[in-house]
Amino acid sequence: MKLWDCFATALQTIFSHKLRSGLTMLGILIGVAAVISMVSLVRSEQAMVRESLESLGANLIFVTPGTPGAGGGIGGALASTSTLTLEDAEAIASDARSVSMVAPITQSTTEVVAGGENVGCLTLGVTVEYQYVRNFETEQGNFISGQDYMRSARVVVLGNELAETLFGQMSPLGQRLRINGRQFEVIGVLKSKGEAFGTEDQAAMIPLSTAQAVLSSERAGGSGHVIQAIAIQAKSRDAIGSAQWEINDILRRRHHIGPEGEDDFRVISMGDIARTADQMYAIGELIMAAIAGISLLVGGIGIMNIMLVSVTQRTREIGLRKAVGAKRRDILTQFLIEAAVLSLCGGAVGVALGWVIIKISAGVLASMGFPFPAILPGDVVALAVGVAICVGLTSGLYPAIRAARLDPIESLRHE
Amino acid sequence: MIELENITKVYRAGRMEVSALRGISCRIEDGEMVSLMGPSGSGKSTLMNIIGCLDKPTLGKYLFDGVEVSKLSDNKLAEIRNRKIGFVFQSFNLLPRATALANVELPLIYGGSGSHRQRALQALESVGLAHRAKHKPSELAGGEQQRVAIARALINNPSLILADEPTGNLDTQTSRGIMLLFKQLNQQGMTIVLVTHESDIAAYTRRTMKIRDGQIEALE
Ligand SMILES: Nc1ncnc2c1ncn2[C@@H]1O[C@H](COP(=O)(O)OP(=O)(O)OP(=O)(O)O)[C@@H](O)[C@H]1O
Ligand SMILES: [Mg+2]
Predict the structure, then answer these.
(1) Which of A42, A101, B49, B220 sits at 20 to 30 Å (Cα–Cα) from A78?
(2) Would residue A391 count as lying in a domain?
(3) Interface probe, candidates B110, B155, B157, chain A, greatest A C-beta count within 10 A
(4) Which domain holds residue A34?
């Protein structure tokens, strides 16, 4: 029997029993649609987080005070007494060879008053490097310049949301406001970096020198000017690791920490954070795959179930086919192809349905204010359809063998 | 040519043994038309199945065209059924969802030559049903359905046609038409063996074999 005739026979059967075929496909269809849409959503989310992390700054390393075990993180160092100094930052800038730029930061919670508005917010004291290390762009005006730093100018750059809170639709440029009672002039507004990392959107930035002069309440006991964090850019992605080592080395030396002593600071690279996030998403994908696997298994059982019933229903047909010359392997092939075609069609429709689900969820999320890319993951589509066909073939095998083994005379007598 | 020598068939159902055939010996020459008669349960269908290579005898020797059938593999038997034998059943056994044409084509796809519309149409034409090619069995009268089944039996140009009560489900008038068709095929050189309960159907054949309790009672 020619392969084409096998296919034609299988297709004929599938098309002449539309309801049964549809029901057989259903399990596989839902399984494939579920896998594809789930994985796609997880991937889009992951891509977005990765993008936001990247937008924080290329090859970014953060140094914050505190022991590695302690809580905190970026911006979490406020409560504890900081061990970092401006001199630490300068030492890193001059000695660490894998580092291209260093931006020392002070942080304080402040009260900002502009017109009638009175807002509590984070005020960062920064240098000109901070803009480049953090990859900021201004929406209006300029960032703090070297001159502003030298002169300890009373100028402020506002985060996007803070500017809107304070000034509404009015242009904040050139406006005056008070931070902890001192007057400042607004020279710029930052562009927003999106939902995921909104802290800067609500912060104010002033020259580090100004912050130390007017805001700082604590002074380092002789060891230098206290700062709350250092943002550092490594020379390249590959240099991040060595930069972290060098920073560690310099700070331990400067803080007189012996070989046994614990760090009194933490060095975190964005790569570490990205890696942690990636690991979480990998686990998420694995769970999805497990769920999908189970639903495909259930689909396979569905196929086997319906095909076993179909073999019983079609006993006479099988007997007749054998009487007119069908061999065992002809019947076997016919049923296997039926199972494969059914699961392939189920898989294909499942891919289409998955795509529709992805599109709809992306649309719904976008309308809720979360722009979400609709991605059809090619590798998952291929894998899901491949698995679907394998599941179809395996679950079709037993019914097919049963059909092929039927005795022609008994079958023809079957009612 | 069919040569049966002491054919015995024993069915085992649990501990019970049923001897359906007990030592049947006879010859049917090429081009003969033979009817097989006998009471219900006498073993007619069993014998037809053995002659049709659907079943093997428990004992005895069956030579079909000089080849001993019981020594052939299942695949070889399938090939013989496909190429050399055409079956016609009492209940037609057409695929209900396929058209008349597709039903007639069925043996072709198992013959290795692939499906062949033209040949199937010719076969339908030879039973006078070319105009019903696109109809499903449910849209055809009983006699027409049996003609489609006969066209299916003819499609591979077999040397032997086996018909087990081909007119059992048909009225007298329609039966006559079917018998005339068999007669015509026999005149073209096909060997035909048919089972019947009715002596006026048997009258269409030159020879009648009567069976009782699995043995030949009379050969005319
Ligand atoms: N698969 C089987 N298992 C057990 N016994 C069987 C089987 N097939 C047939 N028989 C028995 O063999 C005997 C002959 O059966 P067969 O079908 O050949 O009779 P028949 O002459 O064709 O009868 P009818 O005219 O009713 O069709 C019967 O007694 C039947 O019960
Ligand atoms: Mg019978």
Answers:
(1) A101
(2) yes
(3) B110
(4) 3-53+275-413
On whether any CB of chain B is under 8 Å from the CB of A414, the answer is no
**A324 closest CB neighbour out of B49, B97, B107:** B107
Report ipTM for this prediction.
Answer: 0.94
Does the residue A65 lie in any domain? no
The residue of chain A nearest to residue B96, with distances taken between CA atoms, is A317
Measure CB to CB from residue A323 to each of B74, B87, B97 and give the nearest one.
Answer: B87
Element (H, E) at B67: strand B67-68
For A66-113, what is each residue's pLDDT tens digit?
765 544 444 444 445 678 889 999 999 999 999 999 999 998 889 999
Cβ-count burial of A12 within 10 angstroms (0-12 exposed, 13-18 middle, 19+ buried)? middle
For residue range A176-215, list pLDDT tens digits in order.
999 988 999 999 999 887 655 557 888 999 999 999 888 7
Which of B12, B90, B109 would best serve as a mutation to test chain A binding (most A beta carbons within 10 A)?
A: B109
Q: What is the average pLDDT across A102-127?
A: 90
Same domain for A257 and A296, yes or no, is no
| Confidence (pLDDT) at B140 | 95
Residue ranges of domains in chain B: 2-219
Chosen domain end from A263, A297, A313: A263
The answer as to CATH 3.40.50.300 being correct for domain B2-219 is yes
| Ligand lying closest to the C-alpha of residue B89 | 2
Question: Same domain, yes or no, for A94 and A230?
Answer: yes
Does residue A3 carry a pLDDT above 60? yes
A327:B78 CB<8 A:
yes
The Å distance, Cα B165 to ligand 1 centre, comes to: 14
Distance A312 CA to ligand 1 centre (A): 22
The answer to whether residues A242 and A359 belong to one domain is no
For A322, which residue in chain B has the nearest alpha carbon? B78
Residue among B162, B164, B125 at smallest CA distance from B147: B125
pLDDT digits (tens, 9 = 90+) for A148-185: 999 999 999 999 889 988 988 888 999 999 998 899 99
Nearest CA owner, ligand 1 atom 18: B43
Same domain, yes or no, for A247 and A376? Answer: no
Backbone phi, psi, residue B216, to 5°: -75, 125
Q: How many domains does chain A have?
A: 2
Do A334 and A297 share a structural domain?
yes
Residues A153 and A179 in one domain: yes
Residues A197 and A217 occupy one common structural domain: yes
Kindly state the helix (H) or strand (E) to which residue A250 belongs, with its residue range: helix A240-254
Tell me the C-alpha distance between A44 and A198, whole Å.
Answer: 20
* Residues A102, A239 within the same domain: yes
Report how far apart, in Å, the C-alpha atoms of B194 and of each of A412, B41, B214 are. Answer: 18, 16, 17
Provide the pLDDT for residue A197.
55
Last residue of one domain, picked from the residues A210, A230, A263? A263
Residue B110 to residue A6: CA distance in whole angstroms: 9
Q: Long-range pairs for B44-48 at CB < 8 Å and ≥24 separation? A: B44/B164, B44/B195, B44/B211, B45/B164, B45/B195, B46/B9, B46/B20, B46/B21, B46/B214, B47/B7, B47/B21, B47/B211, B48/B162, B48/B164, B48/B193, B48/B195
Output the pLDDT for position A83. 82
Q: Give a yes or no: residue A369 inside a domain.
A: yes
Q: Best-predicted range by mean pLDDT among A45-54, A198-207, A244-253, B111-120?
A: A244-253
Contact B75 A328 (CB under 8 A): yes
In a domain? residue A102: yes
Spell out which residues line ligand 1, taking CB within 6 angstroms. B 11, 13, 18, 20, 38, 40-46
A364 touches chain B (CB under 8 A): no
